[in-house]
Amino acid sequence: MKNKQWQGWGAGEQAQQHYLIEPRSLAGGGDVRHVSEFLRASGWRDKSKTGGPLAMESPDRTVRIAYDPYVLPGGWSIHGAASGHQDEWWAVLGRQTPVEIVAGLTDALTQPRSAHAPNVWAPLQDQNWSDQPHPDHVTATSPDGNAWVQYHQSPGSESMWWAGAKDGQGNGWTAQFAPSTPMHLVQAFSTALASPEPVMRPLGRVPHSTQIRTTSVSVLPSQLSAWQQARITAARAATWARNTTRGSRPRTTARPHANAGGTRTRR
């Protein structure tokens, strides 16, 4: 690798102050590109209009993701079309949902589904979230009491997943999932929500909350760029691997224009 590719590192750069924030559920929205650039690198189409809200579409055109900060309450909306045995589904997440948690769900849309049965509660139990059974619902609450995931089903009504986070000052967000939302996506969301890993925010983007813990760190712009690029590179590599695997599969059926005799007639 040529040295000139690394000229961004070194004494010419000025370190910038950032903060690691815990718990991640109260870190605020963050940079939307954390979600959109990964999707773009995974082959999703950017349908956004200039100056308008973010709009992304999956390669097979069955899933659409939008982020609109210009309306109230604003936030993320995800819609999946009916296909095969899957019913139409949706999910909505508030504007202050941290992008790292949103990405837990949206990244999963780009990846093959696991053969294991999904379990939304497992990631929460692993992080010592407490269960609160109720006749109409089950709620898991984070150890600090600031975040929750609830499965609600009352007699005669459809089941519903509901989640969110809120601090003592009233700052927070909620998320809802349609009864038909694939469970592996809800599990991906709960995994990202329960993760103990802090998330990073730049100076001036730290929420005013007494419930968060912050650690000041100095970060070079080239370091930030390298971390962001690593995520994009991983998405491109995974997409390339999937496409290569599909292209290398042997054909199990005859081509549409082939006939039993193996001859072709000109018209």
From TrEMBL:
Alphabetized InterPro entries for the sequence: DUF317_SPDY
Domain named DUF317: residues: 57-114, 141-199
Pfam families according to UniProt: SPDY
Biological classification of the source: Bacteria, Bacillati, Actinomycetota, Actinomycetes, Kitasatosporales
Segments of this protein annotated with the region Disordered: 240-267
Protein name per the record: DUF317 domain-containing protein
Native species: Streptomyces finlayi
